[in-house]
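Team,

Forwarding the record for the chain on the shared tracking sheet. I've put the sequence and predicted structure together so nobody has to dig through attachments.
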Amino acid sequence: MKIINQIEIKEILGLDEDDLIERSQNLSELSWDSLAMVMLQTHIDEKYDIQIDPDNLPDLKTIGCLDDYINSFK
């Protein structure tokens, strides 16, 4: 299955454009930390004008979960 928000996810995680990511990849193997969570909140706020309380962020485990979460705002 294709990653729909690949550019946004790489930006949120601070990855390079040419880094390869897969839906099944564990976020804990990448740069998923409090800064990445803030980047996710900022992305959703700027793109969809929706503010998310950090306490309400789901427990995202994989790139696929993060992709689906971003997609849920479209």
